[in-house]
Structures are given as C-alpha cells and as structure tokens.
Design a protein that fits this description.
By secondary structure, the protein is of the alpha/beta class. It folds into 2 domains: 109 residues, ATPase, nucleotide binding domain (Nucleotidyltransferase, domain 5, 2-Layer Sandwich); 147 residues, 2-Layer Sandwich (Nucleotidyltransferase, domain 5), CATH 3.30.420. It is built from 13 helices and 11 strands. The strands form 2 sheets. A 6-stranded mixed sheet has the order 8-7-6-9-11-10, sandwiched between helices. Strands 3-2-1-4-5 form a 5-stranded mixed sheet, with helices on both faces. The two termini are 19 Å apart. This is Phosphatase. InterPro entries: ATPase_NBD, GppA/Ppx_hydrolase, Ppx_GppA_N. GO terms for molecular function: pyrophosphatase activity.
Length: 295
C-alpha cells in the first residue's frame, strides 16, 4: 500500500509518496517518490496579503502534476495540507476551493498548532529521555516544542520564517517573543539539546561537520552559515550548487535556528530526516486504520 502527503508551504510545495511496510507488529514507511517545487507563495502573502492569480495558476498546475504522480503510483490515500502563507492569505480558502474544483485535490489549510502536532508525532520517535527543544523553521512561521522524557511540555508558533525574514515582513517584536518564550520554558538546570527540522537546517546539516550521523554543534552550524553568507546569491547557486529558492533563504533560516539555540543554551543539534510530510503520511495511515476498525 502507498500513501501520499502534499505539503504546501510558504517557500515550496512538496509531494512525498511512501510505501507502508509491515515487519511483524512494527509499521514503517519507505519513501518511494519525493518532488519539491518552489512556488514561493509567501512572497505574495507577506507583501500583498493575498495570493495573486499567477500563484493560483501555478499552484493549480502543480496539483494536477501531483495528482498524476499519485495515480501512476496507485496511491491508496493522501492528504494535502497548506501552512503559513495560505492560511494568512485573505483569499486562501477561496483559492483552495477553486483548486479542489479544478483538480480534485482537497487542500486542508491548517493552523500553526496542527502543523506542530503533525511534525511532533514523528519527531518524538527520534527522542530519548533528555530535554529537547524542537525548532521547525518554515518560510512563514517557526514552531517551537519543548520535550522532557519524551513528553511535550509546551509549544508555540511564531510568525517569523525564512521567506518572511527575506521580505522584511516578520511581525513586530517576533524575535523578542521567541526569546521570552524560551527563557520562560527552558529548565536551565538540565542540558538542552536542539532538534532541527525543515529544508534549510537539513541543507546546513549536510554541509556541516558532524559528531554523529544525525548530530552536529551550534558552532558548526554557525560556521556554515557564515561561510554561505560570504558568497553572493549567484555564487551560492553556481559554486555551492544551492537551488535558487534555497540560496536566498538559507541564511535567514540559519539565523533563526542559531538564535533560538543561543537563547536556550543548546550547544548540540539533532537533525532527523523528518518533517511535516512524514507527519501527514502517518496521520493518513492512522485514519485508514480507524476506518477499517469501524467496519
């Protein structure tokens, strides 16, 4: 059985198709298809407050492509979720409805707490009994989640993200709000380890020196950030081989991860290969199981 997730963010829209594997009582998901396309919806919304007809047309075309890919893979079920840009757009729901009428793809516009919940459901599997601060930086928002002994203690969504910073559209006082939240919630008497999710931290982590397969240090992430910042946009694309839509947002995104880690006193960061798309697939699987049980 194959399941799919569509994640429509402020910077890019992703399709992930995974096969469900059963090993005795253990269920796992193996990625068989992954496509990412840079729609950059956040540019419209953070500057004009709504999505333009051009963005609607491109998003509609992309959903048609994703639908065809799901049909080719004979996907059993899927879910499409839109986050910060579409939920803040004054015409977001209207456009989502038109896309569904045109393509058959229903887009669920989810709030920050639901977005964090879906990510947390898969990230928690990578944690142990220590104190962790999960940092997920998207194009339009940053979600922070605090864990102790694998239990979520608190969480908060902030209107600051890589595209929003790039456009100079972060909400007033956003940096201070994050710093205050971290100070109020972190137990400074215990070690705190950061957990980073999102495309930008994954790219930074790939370029960084690592202390293990999934762990690096704040100092190393900062070194890589400064190294990238020393290149022009053109050289980041041609010399560092970054995608154009990654090259301009990776430094602003790094600033968020690094700042949060500094405020929390976290010197280490774990970067699991997980994100919203994985949480969506897990939710689709759980919903299918509930339907089978109800029959």
């Amino acid at each position: 059985m194959k399941l799919a997730a569509i994640d429509i963010g402020s910077n890019a829209a992703r399709l992930q198709i995974s096969t469900v594997l059963h090993n005795d009582d253990i269920v796992s998901f193996k990625r068989v298809e992954y496509v990412r396309f840079p729609l950059r919806l956040g540019h419209d919304v953070f500057n004009f407050g709504e999505l333009t007809p051009e963005s609607e047309a491109r998003t509609t075309k992309l959903m048609q492509v994703y639908k065809l890919l799901m049909e080719l893979h004979e996907v059993t079920d899927y879910m499409a979720c839109a986050t910060s840009a579409m939920r803040e757009s004054s015409n977001g729901q209207e456009i989502a409805d038109r896309i569904e009428a045109s393509t058959g793809i229903k887009i669920h516009i989810i709030d920050g707490s639901k977005e964090a919940e879906l990510i947390n459901n898969v990230v928690v599997q990578a944690l142990d009994d220590q104190q962790f601060l999960h940092i997920d930086v998207g194009g339009g928002s940053t979600e922070l989640n605090l864990y102790r002994n694998r239990q979520k203690i608190n969480s908060k969504s902030f209107k600051i993200g890589s595209v929003r910073l790039l456009e100079g559209k972060e909400t007033k006082g956003a940096w201070r709000k994050i710093e205050d939240w971290v100070e109020e919630n972190i137990d400074s008497s215990a070690e705190i380890i950061a957990v980073g999710t999102g495309g930008n931290i994954s790219k930074l982590f790939n370029l960084a020196s690592k202390t293990s397969d999934s762990e690096s240090t704040r100092a190393e992430i900062e070194r890589i950030r400064n190294y990238i910042a020393g290149f022009s946009q053109e050289d980041r694309i041609n010399k560092l081989r970054l995608n154009a839509d990654r090259a301009d947002v990776i430094v602003p995104a790094a600033d968020i991860y690094i700042s949060v880690m500094k405020w929390a006193g976290a010197n280490k960061i774990v970067v699991p290969d997980l994100g919203l798309k994985d949480g969506i697939i897990q939710l689709v699987f759980e919903q299918l199981n509930k339907e089978k049980t109800a029959l």
